[in-house]
Amino acid sequence: MALAKDKLIANLQNQVGLAKHESRAAVDRVLEIMKKTLASGEDVLISCFGKFSIRQKRERRGRNPQTKASLMLRARKVLVFNTSGVLRARINNS
User: Fold this and answer.
1) Is 84 exposed, middle or buried (0-12, 13-18, 19+ CB in 10 A)?
2) What is the mean pLDDT of each run of 10 residues along the chain (94 residues)?
3) Where are the CATH 4.10.520.10 domain residues in the chain?
4) What CATH number labels 48-94?
5) Rounded distance, CA 77 to CA 3, Å?
6) Cβ pair 50, 34 in contact under 8 A
7) What is the bridge-based pairing of β-strands 44-46 and 70-73?
8) Nearest-CA neighbor of 6 among 49, 14, 50, 44?
9) pLDDT at residue 1, as a whole number
10) C-alpha closest to that of 87 among 34, 45, 31, 47
C-alpha cells in the first residue's frame, strides 16, 4: 500500500500536533520547493533518505509492442531517485 499525500498529512497532524490545514500547507510547501528545485536542474538531497535528480535520456530506437512497428523515441528528461545507504540498510534489514 502506498503512502498517499492525505496519509502523510494525517501522520504529520497526529505526530507533530499541527492543525490539518497547517499540515497540508507544510506538505504542499515542501513538495513545491522540491518541484521548483528539480525543474531548475538542481538535485534534492535528503539526508538518511536519498537523492532526487534529473537525468537526460538520449533519443533511442523503440518498438510499439502492439504493432511491432519500429520508431524513434525522443530525447527527454527523467526523474531518478537513489536511496541513501542508511535507508537501503533499513529496508534490507526489516
Assistant:
1) middle
2) 91 93 96 97 96 96 93 96 95 86
3) 48-94
4) 4.10.520.10
5) 25
6) no
7) unpaired
8) 14
9) 74
10) 47
